[in-house]
Amino acid sequence: MDEKNTPLLLIVDDSRMSRMLLRAMVADNRPAWRIIEAVSGDEALKMVSEARPDFVSMDVNMPGISGLEAAGRIRIRHPDARIVLCTANIQESTREAASRAGVHFVAKPITVQSVTDAIAFFEA
Amino acid sequence: MFTLGEMQLDALAEIFNIGVGRAASSLSLIVNDEVLLTAPEVILVRREQAIKLLLSAELQQFSTVSQTFSGPFEAQALLVFPESNALEIVRLMVGPHMSIEELSEFEQEAMCEIGNIILNACMSSLADIFHISFDSTLPLHRFGNTESLSVFEGNEEQMVLLLQVDMVISQQCIQGHILFLLSVASMSSLLACLDQYLAAQGLS
Amino acid sequence: MAGDLGNANLCTVIDRLEAGVVILDEARRILHCNRWFNLRSGQTADSLGQRPFAEMFPEAAGSRLEQAIEHAIHDHLPSLLSPALHGTLLPLYQTPDDRRREKRMQQLIHVLPLGDDSAARCLIQITDMTANISRERLLRQQTEILRRTTTQDQLTGVANRRQFDERLATEFHKAQRNHHPLGLMIVDLDLFNAYNTHYGRDQGDNCLIEIAAILKNAVRPPFDFVARYGGDEFALILPGSSEKDICRQAENLRLQIATLAMANAASSLAKHLTVSIGTTVMRPEGEANTHTLLSSADVALYQAKRDGRNRAIYFSLEDGSFKLCS
């Protein structure tokens, strides 16, 4: 496939383990996808305007701006990007905030199940 | 003395964050309001260093909830708050209209339960991810000064996994610590579980 | 040793206990419950035996008790449910008279794992705490339930979040239908945590009341609408507003609140309490939804905070730019 046509996924998480896990599981399921990583919401915003990812997986509790704010900003500038919040913060208020920002919610830990769920949302 | 690699600390922090995230969800169910719990960092220190860190706060009166977990490794887990912070948590959780008299009647049990929720959540997150299981004592709550706390009387060899916990309820941010006291043997078993997990995920 | 007592004897002992005992199996079915529990729950041993606990006590569904049972059976971890946080979780009554009056017993509940070796997996132990807890607490809980079901914010008297959500949806559709612009403003008290910590919550509450009053005075009912949006956030829905109008109104509100000069020694920004305001105007068309409108006002507010707070920022949906209101 042409490099330009393969979906690009941006993983945003301050935990190295989580980024690596997510990358490995997505690569298993969708070997063609290109994957880039950011360790904070601020870095993610920069990368989004440069790289224009199709999909974003976003942690919530990170140093700097929160994943929710970052997701909101990405959504306004790039309404086509599909965003999943992948977080240990599982309470109702976070799920609500996710739906308010129009993004999909996936609870940590990162498992085959949660990654399958996220991929299904990206491709829906 | 053990030292932990960057990946090991990162993994422990992430596992405990999943734990406190679940605890926050249980607490928010109880208070019907948003509760934020984060444990941004894990450090591994010797027992006497942990004491120094706790004492660096000017307050010498603490509220502690402790549970002893046993299984593939044994850990005494403590949730430690300065006493005034603990009272604040109970006041926020139980309700602002509660009088001090009422509060003092129940603060022990309420605090005990809050500790129980947080400590169980941390250990069950470890258990889930490592596919192991623990037994535990019921939570015990104590108010007391430094001398009466068990963390200050364990043996020299003990290691402490220390997490700072930030709790936000009703816009108030309250800080405390979670300590896991482990013997050298238990610490090695924990690390063995951790390394096995990382290897299984292809991350080591 | 328990072995010397024998099973029959042990059952008698459990039956005579002055505490409630319920034993569950792996499928969360009731294996055994003692006489104390039968009397207080008004259920016979036969009616409870072998039935799923969740079916017999639907109030436990989704509660912390259910989580505690899962913890005991799945994770082998014990839990404690305090009366201060749960009180009257199970329908247990001291007397038939109490049952008629729906006056439940105050409960301290321990949920303990029993291991994987026998059919009995989980022990629920209930202690009666009623004598220790005042009647006022019951009243307080009822007030609390009422508060949650109303549409008004109890403290400030403006609409609450629930009503806001409904109103925003209505106004959005109206604007969509009539091709009118719809303005949204979010007003956030700067560093309010620090204020509360410094002056105490009562004083903090007074601030919220005063600011709510200013906002109420500033809008044109019945078109405009003010709601308490979060702990220290208010939201204003302003139908028909233009960018120019809303910017001027936001800046006016900011100045008006500043001139109240509510002392704030905890603030690093000013000597008095200040607010940050995020605002936007949208012409809802086609696929647009309220998310975009809310996110835009949020983003403007984030920007106002990042720029140093104590300011009003307008976010333009047309060109994605920010503008300081003046």
For this structure, the quaternary state is heterotrimer
User: Can you tell me the CATH architecture of chain B?
Assistant: 3-Layer(aba) Sandwich
Please give the order of strands in the largest beta sheet of chain A: 2-1-3-4-5
CATH topology of chain B: Chemotaxis protein chec
Q: Tell me, what is the CATH class of chain A? A: Alpha Beta
Query: CATH H-level name of chain B... which superfamily?
Result: CheC-like
The two chains with the largest interface, and their residue counts, are:
B-C, 37 and 35 residues
* Main β sheet profile of chain B: 8 strands, antiparallel
Mean pLDDT of chain A: 91
Characterization of this structure:
The complex is a heterotrimer of chains A (124), B (204) and C (326). In chain A, 46% of the residues lie in helices and 19% in strands. By secondary structure, chain A is of the alpha/beta class. The model of chain A has no long low-confidence stretch (mean pLDDT 91). Chain B is of the alpha+beta class and 204 residues long. In chain B, α1 crosses α4 (100-130). Chain C is 43% helix and 19% strand. Chain C is elongated, with a radius of gyration of 28 Å. Chain B binds chain C through residues 26, 29-30, 32, 90, 93-98, 102, 105-107, 109-110, 112-114, 116-117, 120, 123-124, 127, 133-139, 170-173, and chain C through 62-64, 67, 71, 75-86, 108, 110, 112-113, 132-134, 137, 140, 144, 148, 192-193, 196-197, 201, 231-232.
